[in-house]
Design a protein that fits this description.
The protein has 267 residues and is an alpha+beta fold. It has one domain. It contains five helices and five strands, in the order H-H-H-H-E-E-E-E-E-H. Strands 3-1-2-4-5 form a five-stranded mixed sheet. The protein is globular, with a radius of gyration of 26 Å. It starts with a helix and ends in a 23-residue tail after the last helix.
């Protein structure tokens, strides 16, 4: 038998050079794919965040339908820390929270005004999958923990303080909110707050538009807002601040939006 001839006609293995070339090609493909994968992941998180805020905004509108079109109260320390004030805010209700203290964890949202309008709300078993899903609606998926001991334990979003009649400076006996129909369709009721703002801006469920760095920038260059007409949208960070500045505004803007006020601004 001609062994040399047999070896020449049999299958030939890869040389080290060929293997290195293949590995280099694979590395190049991975390098090309990874940025695309990262962008897909970022945009997927934006879509989920917008969906979450849309669900909260629909719950907000359902609440208004059941309460003479009035918006839920915005959870301000100014009111919540007063022993005489016993009104449920959009995000939580201190008297029903664990140990009557704020920020025990995400389950605190089950005490808020919007909860009963999400997936059956008060009829959901606290440990059920439905409850877990409903609680997750209060948070942007890219808002990662660990969270400080403030409202970030509960949510990624905040409510515009201007929903309170008088801009949030009314007497506490009722602290009436405006009716949803008092606002223009694209006035901003909720926005995705900046997670890097100081703790004082996360000490409750509401802010004025200029407080706490305003809108988050974690979604590339902007964040989500929820409007009075029930819509949600991604708003560029610069566009947000164009609606905030100058302060006080010369006319109402989407964020300085006190109804029936020539400037939309709290006096």
């Amino acid at each position: 038998m001609n062994i040399r001839a047999f070896r020449q006609t049999g299958p030939r293995g890869f040389t080290i050079i060929e293997l290195l070339v293949v590995l280099a090609i694979i590395a190049m493909l991975v390098a090309m794919i990874m940025p695309s994968y990262k962008n897909v992941r970022i945009h997927a998180q934006i879509i989920v965040c917008q969906t979450n805020m849309r669900q909260l905004n629909l719950a907000n509108m359902s609440y208004c339908m059941d309460h003479e079109r009035r918006l839920p109260r915005p959870n301000s320390n100014y009111a919540d820390d007063s022993p005489s004030f016993k009104k449920r805010g959009w995000l939580y209700y201190v008297p029903e929270m664990k140990n009557h203290r704020k920020f025990n964890g995400p389950e605190d949202v089950m005490t808020g005004a919007l909860w009963q309008y999400l997936y059956g709300g008060v009829n959901i078993e606290p440990e059920s999958k439905e409850a877990t899903r409903a609680v997750s609606l209060y948070r942007c998926p890219s808002h990662d923990g660990p969270y400080p001991d403030n409202a970030q334990q509960l949510t990624s979003y905040c409510m515009n303080r201007l929903v309170i009649m008088g801009g949030g400076h009314d007497e506490l006996n009722e602290w009436w909110t405006w009716r949803l129909t008092d606002f223009r369709p694209r006035d901003v009721i909720y926005w995705e707050a900046d997670e890097n703002a100081g703790g004082g801006y996360w000490n409750d469920g509401t802010n004025y538009p200029y407080e706490g760095n305003g809108l988050t920038g974690r979604h590339i260059t902007g964040g989500q807002v929820a409007n009075a007409d029930g819509s949600t949208e991604w708003l560029h960070y610069d566009e947000y601040w164009n609606e905030v500045m100058p302060r006080p505004p010369v006319k109402p803007t989407r964020l300085w939006c006190i109804p029936h006020d020539p400037n939309g601004y709290p006096g």
